[in-house]
Design goal:
Layout lengths: L1 H17 L5 H4 L18 H4 L3 H36 L8 H79 L11 H66 L5 H20 L4
Length: 281
């Protein structure tokens, strides 16, 4: 609250300083003609109300032209007046050549002093222009900073409201703590956990890619095993069917069936042939 009051006081002080509109023309008004008098020149009078660099430059050029004309008229009038007085005077004023030389010497010295004064004035004008530009830059900077300062209280209030909202959200988050400890970790620990999970995810992606590459080969092996399993299933079914038929024939007959008799005969023949040939079983 104290900071806000200080900002308001500073803003009011800057506004009070900016209220009087100062300009070179207005500063020259007390030593110029009366305010009610009309200007004899044809320069726009709006420069008094809204001065600008362009209008000031136009006024300066116009005044220089007026003073040049006035100087020429003054010299012409004074010369004519002195010439007439010298002619019609009683007695007539006669000037010797020596006096002319002396006056020319004085005029030369006066011109030299005038030239120095002109150079001094020109240097002063240059310095004043530099100072004017610097003051103009500072004025623009102060104006911009004043505008920014005017917007600061609103921005501060907005930031305070945002801070309060964040604090309320933080308190609400502390009250609604999750049972999962990973969800209650601080930011650095959460970032470390996220990085660890990312590494595990990359490893799982690599394993998945390797399994996808081995999948066609495993599929071919599985198809071959399925074909072999089908063949074995068929053989098993034929063996089971033969065994069932043998069991059925054996249960129907009183003794050995034809298959058993054939086996005995083949065994006897094999034993006889081995005996004749002397081959051990």
């Amino acid at each position: 609250m104290v900071d806000r009051q200080r900002v308001q006081n500073v803003t009011q002080g800057l506004r009070a300083l900016q209220e009087p509109s100062l300009s070179i023309i207005r500063l020259s008004e007390p030593i110029s003609a009366a305010p009610t008098s009309q200007r004899s020149s044809d320069v726009s009078s709006s420069a008094f109300d809204n001065p600008s660099p362009a209008s000031l430059e136009a006024d300066l050029s116009h005044y220089k032209e007026l003073f040049s004309k006035l100087r020429f008229s003054y010299l012409e009038q004074v010369t004519k007046e002195k010439f007439l007085r010298a002619i019609v005077g009683d007695p007539p004023q006669i000037v010797e050549p020596a006096e002319n030389f002396e006056l020319e010497a004085q005029l030369a010295s006066i011109k030299a002093v005038l030239k120095e004064q002109k150079q001094y004035v020109a240097d002063m004008v240059t310095e004043l222009e530099a100072q004017g530009r610097e003051l103009c830059r500072r004025y623009e900077t102060v104006t911009l900073q004043t505008k920014m300062l005017d917007s600061l209280p609103v921005q501060i209030e907005g930031m305070r409201e945002t801070l309060e909202d964040l604090r309320r959200q933080n308190r609400a988050g502390d009250e609604a703590m999750s049972d999962d400890p990973n969800l209650n970790l601080p930011l650095p620990a959460t970032q470390a956990l996220v990085e660890e999970r990312m590494v595990e995810l990359e490893e799982l992606d690599m394993q998945l890619k390797s399994l996808q590459q081995a999948l066609p080969r495993q599929t071919r092996v599985l198809e071959m095993e399925e074909r072999e399993l089908k063949v074995l299933e068929q053989e098993r079914e034929r063996a089971v069917l033969g065994a069932r038929e043998a069991v059925g024939r054996k249960s129907e007959g009183s003794g050995a069936d034809g298959l058993e008799l054939r086996g005995r005969w083949l065994k006897g023949v094999d034993t006889g042939l081995r005996g004749l040939l002397g081959v051990q079983a």
